[in-house]
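Table 4 source record.
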Amino acid sequence: MQTRAQDQSDPGSTDEANLSRSSFTILEGTDGETTVTVTEAPTDGPTVFVIGGIHGNETAGYTAAEEITEWTIDAGTLVTLPRANPVAIERTTRVDDEGVDLNRQFPEGSDPGTELATAIWDVISEFDPDIVIDLHESRGIYAGDPVDGVGQAIFHSRRNDVAQLAADTADAVNETYIDDSNRAFQTGYYSAPDNDPSGLLVHKASRELNADTFLVETVSTQNELETRVTWHSAIVEHLTTDALFPTDEPDNGHEPDEPLDEEEEPDDPPANENGPDETEPDDGDDSSGENGDDGEDGENGADSGDNAGGDDSNTDGDVPADHTAPTATIRTEPANAADRTFAPDETITLDATCSRAPDGELVSYEWSIQSDGTYDESGQTVDVTVSATGEHRVLLRVTDDAGARDTTELTLTVN
């Protein structure tokens, strides 16, 4: 079943003549040269930064960002960087020609890791945006654990107002655009600072610039590009309505010709039954096409679009709306195990005692050791001995006494 899509028009009501729109290039004369567009409304307001194309095979993200570049706005400033990673876009791959994943080059507390990442961060720092939105795609649908894929999700920081805005946005988009409950959008928290995935742009912007940040993922399989672009644009519009369109309801032409039938309105989305072909995306994948996979950009602590407290994917029951979710954290002995290469049959100790439950106590520590997503070990610490060479994913899921959950992961490399 497909979601209806409409031709898109500029969402604001301000006359184009009253706007200031300009552009400039970064890394001019290099393979990384790309364009930033700045749209300023005549009325003061917040600054919004929208970025797409960090991964070159996630077509809907940068296509939507290109269309958002042309929006008229009623207040504030809209800064857009649609084609953030032109080399990867040209190659239609997740990574650039040197195998670098751009969305792992923004470490917190230190300088970006590449020339392109530095140039992008310089732009963001200069404009100091109030809101940052990063548009991505995944081959699998988010079902609480990023191992299954992260499509149809809006990830966000742990501030209550940000979480509520993400949940309200998922509700609105699901009601208006989604007629298949398996495609309903969910929301999820970012991983903790010391957990994987790390080096994400939105993490750095949230924690260093105190911006409200969102990482939006659409599922690229079994949906036309036009539909996925509509989803992205509608989500950005809803997330920025108060900032960019404070006086008039934006009219961007996304609404379906007819309202969705009442019986087709999505319930809470079930666990993904048709996940991606691969349970572990390859950051160095050179496969081409539109089916982007940003799986490891996916975060933890899912909550359903219509209830910020969460559904069965991250709770054992009803959790109060103002309850702060726990944070799962893995420490290792030897330290920094995710950054090392181990010999076969070497033992690594995984320690979850640094996990936290701000609004209660942790009552369960579950481990998935077999790289298959099943939780087959329990306890605050476990010892892992891996004989086979290659990469081995480990998941930790913690549950607090209110039934709220959080999940994190790391990858052990044996060679």
